[in-house]
Each structure stands twice: as structure tokens, then as C-alpha cells.
Write a sequence for this structure.
């Protein structure tokens, strides 16, 4: 068993990150002991690994460290014999490594650096927000220093494990395998709702766009949809389930059940079509999740009402999901999910940037930086959203570049035996708007098969 001596201040924060790294990620047996020391000391079999405390030792115990001035401005990338990539970024600490047979002294504060990424306290301290009151990827330390595309928490883990192996640890780490998690936010059930909508759109085709043929094509297509001859462009649920089943996984469909803004209520969760769809999804063994409305991320009452409605329609518990528009307020949103007995949130991905917002694709228990408590809720970080890569308002990549980026993240998560969570909306296959996206999705599934 490892004996981990820690300084006797910032105990909630220190115990949390140790429980994540040694317990949840590495799966090692350990015991934490409080000492009147300045650094972390990991002891076993007369061997010792010292990780210098370069962060929490600079503050009085409490939450005063949650300040933008304590976020580094520039990151140093260093090399050493224990890392698995060409170099490794130092968020907190210094490039110091002293090695002998029985002791290693490491200047990189692996614990504070991992705590920074996992808890997202950066987003609490940095007040930059986009038009939807979201912390943008472009404002993050990781993007500014070009490591958002790297799972650096996993890199820190490998460095830590290699140092322990060098010293001769006799425990085996937890075995884990690469896993794909396919999620689908159901923002819309259908593109065409009524003749009234069709006439409004086709009127614009004729009067504004001067395109009578387009208007007639829309009318003929909607008539076929009404007759059941073809599916609505957004009715891709069978296709998505078929694709997931072809590679032996389950799709996760996150449904909306309310809302009070123009961004919500594109369908009613209790309408016949939706109820039948939910039954079919469950019949085929796929998963129903919760998609909290636009304002619910910061509104506990609204959030609770929506979850209650969804579970009433589903006639069962719902325990995972994601916030609409990826709106997340740290730590408020996570605490709302915790208070409503949710098990897994998957909101932590940037709308404007793909990559590792939390420094990992693996699930981990969340920490409330204000109450200073480890929550039962786990975060399953979102790595790629199709809209981020393909939408011209964000990356606007070509199909070839889209596939190159996707393939990169598939390969790197496989390298670390990690998870990769993808978001692909059921409505993003419409051939009028998203030309060629079905082919891209098919190719991504092929790469994963």
C-alpha cells in the first residue's frame, strides 16, 4: 500500500485530487497521512517519490486562490525520461527532476495541475464569456498554449506511474480500454411541422429567393412525409441506432422537456410521436438522457421541473445527460445535477473548440470548488461536437479536414485507453443544410469499427 503524506492545509482539495489520480484513474491502494510538511511524499518499500507543492502552499487555506491572477499566462513545455510524449506542459511547478535508486524529487506539481484541469476552476476565475454566457475555448489556458488537443491529465498520470515503476512499485494499475460514447442531443424532432410552416418557407422561396422549383420540391417532399413515404430529414433515429448497433455500442439520446426561451420547445416531450420514439429507443436497448433547457443550467427550479416531466413521460429514472447549448456555470450547474441525483453529466466540451476541456476523456467525480466537496456526480467530458468542426461560425472544416481531426482524437484516446465522447445531433443530416455529413458520420463509424 502507498502511504501518501500531504501538507495539513487545503485538505478537501488535496484529498480530492489524490482520490481521483490514485483511486479512480490508477486504481491503487493507498492511505493518506497528514504531516507538517511542505510537499507531497509518496512512500512504499523504503522508496519515496516527492512531488513539490508549487500551488496550494502559496495561499491561506480556503477559496482565495480562485482568482484570475493565479492562472498562468504562459506555459513551459519540458522533457524528461518519464513522459510518454515529446514534451509535457507545466501548469504549476518547475522543470526539476532529481533521481536516485530510492528517491525521486519532481518539481512538476502534477496534483495542482490536474486539479486545475479537472475542477475547471479556471472558468470560475476567468470572467470571459461568449454571447450565450459560456466560457469559450479560445479563452482557456489550454487553447492559448496549444495543448487543448492533448489529454494532459492522462499524460501526467503516465509520468506519475512511470516514476512509481522506476522506484519498483509492486501494485498493478487499473486496466481500462478505449471506449466510444455516442451521444445525440435531440433539439428537434422534425424539420417540417405543418402546412403553415411549409407555405411560409415556400413563400420566401418564391418572393425572396425567386426559386419556384425549390418551393415546389419542398411541397412535394412534405406531402410524401405526411403520407409516410419518406422520413422527415430530422427523423434519423433508426439510422443512428443501426449505426451504433453495427459496432456493438448503445446510442444515448438526450431529450428536452421544457424551456422558456426561443432556443427551447421545438417539440413537446409528451406528444405522441415523442412518446413512441422514446419507447422504441428503449425497446432497442439504447439510452434516454436529459437535455436541460437553455436557462436551466443556472436555475435549479427550472431544471428540477424539466427532469420530473421527462421521467414522468419515460416512466422511469433518467440519470445522465447534457445541458443545451453546452451552457455550464462552474460549480453551480454541477451542483444542480448532484442535488437531483444525476450520475453523469457530459456538458464539458467547448462549443467553439474540439478537444480536452478537462484534460481527459475519462469519467471522473466532480469537485465543487466553493463548498469544497467531492460530489457523487461524474463528468464524462465531451471531446468532439459535429457543429464545432463543421459549422462555419466555428471551425468550418472541409469533409477531409473534419475526418482528419476526428481520426486524430480517435487515435490519441486509443493510445491512452481512454474514452472519446462524440455529440452528433439527429438533425445534422439534412441534405439541404449539412451536405455530405452522413458520409462523414459513416466514415467515422467505419474508423471505429
Amino acid at each position: 500500500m502507498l502511504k501518501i503524506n500531504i501538507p495539513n492545509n487545503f485538505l478537501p482539495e488535496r484529498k480530492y485530487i489524490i482520490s481521483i489520480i490514485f483511486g479512480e484513474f490508477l486504481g491503487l491502494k493507498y492511505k493518506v497521512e497528514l504531516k507538517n510538511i511542505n510537499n507531497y511524499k509518496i512512500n512504499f518499500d523504503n522508496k519515496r517519490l516527492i512531488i513539490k507543492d508549487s500551488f496550494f502552499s502559496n495561499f491561506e487555506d480556503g477559496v482565495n486562490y480562485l482568482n484570475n491572477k493565479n492562472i498562468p499566462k504562459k506555459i513551459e513545455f519540458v522533457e524528461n525520461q518519464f513522459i510518454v510524449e515529446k514534451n509535457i506542459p507545466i501548469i504549476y511547478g518547475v522543470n526539476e527532476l532529481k533521481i536516485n535508486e530510492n528517491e525521486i524529487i519532481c518539481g512538476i506539481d502534477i496534483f495542482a495541475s490536474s486539479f486545475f484541469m479537472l475542477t475547471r476552476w479556471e472558468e470560475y476565475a476567468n470572467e470571459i464569456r461568449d454571447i450565450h454566457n459560456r466560457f469559450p475555448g479560445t479563452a482557456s489556458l489550454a487553447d492559448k498554449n496549444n495543448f487543448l488537443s492533448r489529454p494532459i491529465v492522462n499524460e501526467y498520470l503516465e509520468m506519475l506511474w512511470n516514476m512509481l515503476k522506476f522506484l519498483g512499485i509492486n501494485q498493478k494499475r487499473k486496466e481500462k480500454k478505449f471506449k466510444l460514447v455516442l451521444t445525440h442531443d435531440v433539439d428537434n424532432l422534425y424539420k417540417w411541422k405543418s402546412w403553415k410552416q411549409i407555405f411560409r418557407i415556400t413563400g420566401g422561396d418564391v418572393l425572396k429567393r425567386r426559386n419556384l422549383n425549390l418551393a415546389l420540391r419542398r411541397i412535394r417532399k412534405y406531402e410524401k412525409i405526411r403520407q409516410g413515404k419518406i422520413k422527415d430529414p430530422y427523423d434519423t433515429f433508426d439510422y443512428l441506432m443501426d449505426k451504433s448497433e453495427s459496432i456493438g455500442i448503445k446510442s444515448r439520446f438526450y431529450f428536452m422537456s421544457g424551456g422558456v426561451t426561443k432556443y427551447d420547445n421545438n417539440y413537446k416531450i409528451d406528444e405522441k410521436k415523442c412518446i413512441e420514439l422514446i419507447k422504441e429507443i428503449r425497446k432497442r436497448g439504447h439510452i434516454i438522457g436529459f437535455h436541460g433547457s437553455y436557462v436551466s443550467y443556472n436555475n435549479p427550479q427550472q431544471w428540477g421541473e424539466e427532469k420530473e416531466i421527462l421521467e414522468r413521460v419515460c416512466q422511469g429514472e433518467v440519470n445522465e445527460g447534457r445541458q443545451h447549448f453546452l451552457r455550464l456555470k462552474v460549480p453551480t450547474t454541477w451542483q444542480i445535477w448532484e442535488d437531483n441525483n444525476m450520475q453523469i453529466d457530459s456538458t464539458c466540451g467547448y462549443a467553439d473548440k474540439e478537444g480536452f476541456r478537462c484534460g481527459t476523456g475519462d469519467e471522473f467525480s466532480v469537485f465543487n470548488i466553493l463548498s469544497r466537496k467531492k460530489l457523487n456526480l461524474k463528468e464524462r467530458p465531451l471531446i468532439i461536437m459535429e457543429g464545432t468542426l463543421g459549422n462555419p461560425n466555428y471551425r468550418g472544416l472541409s469533409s477531409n479536414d473534419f475526418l482528419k481531426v476526428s481520426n486524430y482524437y480517435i487515435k490519441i484516446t486509443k493510445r491512452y485507453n481512454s474514452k472519446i465522447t462524440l455529440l452528433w445531433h439527429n438533425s445534422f443530416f439534412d441534405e439541404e443544410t449539412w451536405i455530405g455529413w452522413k458520409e462523414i458520420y459513416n466514415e467515422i463509424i467505419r474508423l471505429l469499427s
User: Anything to note?
Assistant: Residues 399-415 form the longest helix (17 residues). The chain has a mean pLDDT of 93. The first strand starts at residue 2 and ends at 7.
